[in-house]
Amino acid sequence: MTRLLEDRFGRVATDLRVSLTDRCNLRCSYCMPEEGPDWLANERLLSDDEVVRLVRVGVEQLGIREVRFTGGEPLVRRGIVDIVRRSREIDPALELSLTSNALGLARMAPALAEAGLNRVNISLDTIRAETFHTITRRDRLHDVVAGLEAAHAAGLGPVKINAVLLRGVNDDQAAELLGWAIEHGYHLRFIEQMPLDAQHGWTREQMVTADEILASLEAVFDLSPAVEPRGSAPAELFLVNGGAATVGVIASVTRPFCGDCDRVRLTADGQVRNCLFAREESDLRAALRAGASDEELADRWVIAMRGKRAGHGIDDPTFLQPDRPMSAIGG
To answer: Could you give the CA distance from residue 81 to residue 75 in angstroms, rounded to a whole number?
Structure first.
């Protein structure tokens, strides 16, 4: 019998984010230090079989309807195509997506599409090569662009771009990035920078807010609120110049949408996180390796969700940033 991943406030998680690795081949300044950090030891990572088994438990016993593979950078996981294929076999109707920096996607997009992946979300904060190098500490913009093109050609759409604006770095490029995305048929979403960097250097004063993002865009484009209801989607959508194109703003900090959250996360080392900003985790890996049945794993997962808080609490004076950075949690 299917149970629900329901918390004490009546929210039901149907969207599972699965981190496949904490490793990444970029070093974005708002996420990771220039060197390091220390990666998880291989024996701590879930194996391909363990990942697929936990996805199966989520789908068949707990009502999960969407699975997004994240990292770190999920494309550096050697078994990614097989994991996607085996996850697709669990349920043909399952929505499968991938969040990636697109390095290597030009080569892998056809295989991922054939394995059953539905779509991709690509992180790209600028289309200027020099700014890209400043943010990521790598000269790989051309590879990201090639990956986007390959994803579109392989039918992994709509291809979505996630962008973070950094004050004094690329906060003057919002309209430029939107114009480029519309020209190429990509769906752009701006995300407020969140306190999830490995260096714990985030400050609210330095964060470019949703209001600032919209003001920058409205200096060039005519924006109007989209008609369709937002539901549990994190992005507030706006029509661009009254046409078919849209732009989204994910105001996780200044306009939190915790009350409609339907997400749960599984880290690369098998820990359930009921909130991106949770400071507690529930260990499924140990139980799995100790021989727990699917039903017992599901029981642990249900209990983990009951402890979810009403909101992330960033505005609370007692807020503490999670010990793990985004690269170790999974987006």
So the answer is: 9
Structure tokens at 55: 């996805």
At 325, the pLDDT band (50, 70, 90 cuts) reads: low
- DSSP secondary structure string, 191-202? E---S--TT---
The tokens for 222 are: 């005519």
How do residues 237-296 score in pLDDT, each as one tens digit? Answer: 999 998 889 999 998 888 877 888 999 999 999 999 988 777 788 999 999 999 999 999
Q: CB-side exposure of 231: number of CA atoms within 13 Å?
A: 5
For residues 163 and 217, is the Cβ–Cβ distance under 8 A?
A: no
Q: What is the DSSP string of 256-301?
A: --GGG--EEEE-TTSEEESSTT-S--EESHHHHHTT--HHHHHHHH
- CB-neighbour burial class of residue 256 (10 A; exposed 0-12, middle 13-18, buried 19+): middle
* Unique residue bearing structure tokens 């900003």: 277
What does the pLDDT read at residue 210? 93
Res. 36: pLDDT tops 60: yes
According to DSSP, residue 75 is labeled G
Contact status, residue 15 vs residue 63, Cβ threshold 8 Å? no
The bridge status of strand 160-163 relative to strand 236-240 is unpaired
In this predicted structure, what is the pLDDT of residue 317?
Answer: 55
Domains detected in the chain: 5-160+260-329 (3.20.20.70)
C-alpha span between 63 and 164 (Å, rounded)? 32
Cβ neighbours of residue 315 under 8 Å, at least 6 residues apart?
Answer: none
Residue 306's pLDDT is what?
Answer: 94
103-107, 222-226, 315-319: the lowest-pLDDT one: 315-319
Listed in sequence order, the residues at least 6 apart from 111 whose beta carbon sits closer than 8 Å to its beta carbon are 81
Q: ∠194-83-160 over CA atoms, to 5°?
A: 40
Give the Cα separation of 307 and 33 in Å (integer): 31
